[in-house]
Amino acid sequence: MNKKAQELGMKNTHFITPHGLDEPEHYTTAYELAQITDYALNIKKFSTIVNTKTTTININGNSKTISNTNELLGNLYGVDGVKTGFTNNAGRCLVTSITRSGHQIICVVLGADTKKIRTQDSIKLIEYAFSNYEYIPIKQQIQTKFEEWKKENQNKFEIIKGENKTPNIAIEQIDYSQIPIHKNNIKDIEIQIQCSTKLEAPIEQNQIIGTLQVKQKEEIIIEKNIYIEEPIKKKNIYQYMKELIINYNTYLQIGLSNISIL
């Protein structure tokens, strides 16, 4: 469990027991519970179980109907999981998954004094999120901005001592096609590109030469590297000599042309 937590990048979670009962070194946070829930919901068996309101099982030949303890499941639009919890130290807890119009959020409420309070707080958070946030097509916006920037700057690149003067540049893979932004902050979203156009050969394949940032005012929401797709070798002595001869012949032709005109 701790190994999986590390794999998911969870820095404030540590497991002692598999059952989750109170232990001084057994802890997590609301945010990291949402992280692990997001991971678990991609497991089909898990997502099916937490979305099941009631089911009948057989114990030693006897059938028994068991019910999900998630009070929001089947009672609030879009709820499709996940888990209730309680210990004396943690209080009443509820992790909820909600999907509406193809968009899913995970709501985590910890430390409530009663089931009623955790239910009320969960509903308030859920309705606030769906009422106040909109999804923007961030991947499309990033790609459009980057292609516009490339078109404007492709001829401005200077590769000192390089065989190739026009590098092929690309941007790292964009993880999300859409991101939720508070309605009041959509106008503050800005895409900024910082990239070196003066480079010196040799340049390695995938060498990073800049960054693209999606910012909301001063907060960086997304940051992606800009890199050279193909290596650029340094010119050798023969290429320098060839270039010198071509330049000399061009200069000579221009000079002769000017003489003939006179």
Characterization of the model:
The chain has six helices and 13 strands. It has 262 residues and is an alpha+beta fold. The protein has two domains: 2-133, Beta-lactamase, CATH 3.40.710; 137-235, Sandwich (Peptidoglycan synthesis regulatory factor (PBP3), Domain 2). The protein has a four-stranded antiparallel β-sheet, covered by helices on one side. It has a three-stranded antiparallel β-sheet with strand order 3-4-5, with helices on both faces. Strand 4 and strand 5 (103-112) form a beta hairpin. The protein is elongated, with a radius of gyration of 30 Å. The termini are far apart. The model has no long low-confidence stretch (mean pLDDT 90).
In short:
The chain is α+β, with helices and mostly antiparallel strands and 262 residues long. Helices cover 32% and strands 32% of the residues.
Topology, pairings included?
Layout: H1 2-7, H2 30-40, H3 44-50, E1 54-59, E2 62-67, E3 79-87, E4 91-100, E5 103-112, H4 115-132, E6 133-136, H5 138-153, E7 158-160, E8 169-171, E9 179-182, E10 189-195, E11 198-200, E12 208-216, E13 219-228, H6 237-261
Parallel strand pairs: 7-11
Antiparallel strand pairs: 1-2, 3-4, 4-5, 6-9, 8-13, 10-12, 12-13
